[in-house]
Specification:
heterodimer, A: 6-stranded mixed sheet, about 45% strand, B: mainly beta, 7-stranded mixed sheet, globular
């Protein structure tokens, strides 16, 4: 299984909105509504931010939203805040009953 | 509050077997609603799913690691374990255990991670 494709980096100013893409295939992202997004600050464990494409776990601000179109999923963060600066990883269930992750995207808040 | 804690040697020699344990507290590993998995992250790189186990012992592995990996569950100790044999420097990574709610394919609780270095 090949890793999902994410941009290496994105940036935005406080208050702005940014979108991170996650591209896979019909055997993973496109075939199932089981895309998740994780936030990871340096030296910390990943934190689940979005699951099943667009659902937010309890406690995650509604500034974070997820969507999917075809083989590409997206994470949008609106009203960017300094504490949003982190690495973001997407993952998807696959047709082989496994998970696959993206390479991760570094978000810089300018 | 559910907590997961990884433990094991921080240094493993090439060609040997990496062995880690994940201890779960604040909840039962025998829950029919959850899977328990291992994910790793080489220094400066992205996450890689290693595999998952159900309390019944059913396992699912990353095809690229399947020939070298064994994940097992010990319900009496509320623990899962990871064994990765024939390790090389490419297996140097932070290893995380995580809980997955069945049917979500998402890790909702993670351990803090443990760095394992493969070096002679």
């Amino acid at each position: 299984q090949s890793a999902l494709t994410q941009p290496a980096s994105v940036s935005g100013s406080p208050g702005q909105s940014i979108t991170i893409s996650c591209t896979g295939t019909s055997s993973d992202v496109g075939g199932y509504n089981y895309v998740s997004w994780y936030q990871q600050h340096p030296g910390k464990a990943p934190k689940l931010m979005i699951y099943e494409v667009s659902k937010r776990p309890s406690g995650v601000p509604d500034r974070f939203s997820g969507s999917k179109s075809g083989n590409t999923a997206s994470l949008t963060i609106s009203g960017l805040q300094a504490e949003d600066e982190a690495d973001y990883h997407c993952s998807s269930y696959t047709s082989s009953n496994t998970w696959v992750f993206g390479g991760g995207t570094k978000l810089t808040v300018l | 509050q559910l907590q997961l804690q990884e433990s094991g040697p921080g240094l493993v020699k090439p060609s040997e077997t990496l062995s880690l344990t994940c201890s779960v507290s604040g909840g039962s590993i025998s829950s029919s609603s959850h899977y328990w998995g291992w994910i790793r992250q080489p220094p400066g790189k992205g996450l890689e799913w290693i595999g998952s186990v159900y309390y019944s012992g059913s396992t699912y592995y990353n095809p690229s690691l399947k020939s070298r990996v064994t994940i097992s569950v010990d319900t009496s100790k509320n623990q899962i374990s990871l064994k990765l044999n024939s390790v090389t420097a490419a297996d140097t990574a932070v290893y995380y255990c995580a809980r997955e709610t069945a049917g979500s394919a998402a890790g909702d609780y993670w351990g803090q991670g443990t760095l394992v270095t493969v070096s002679s």
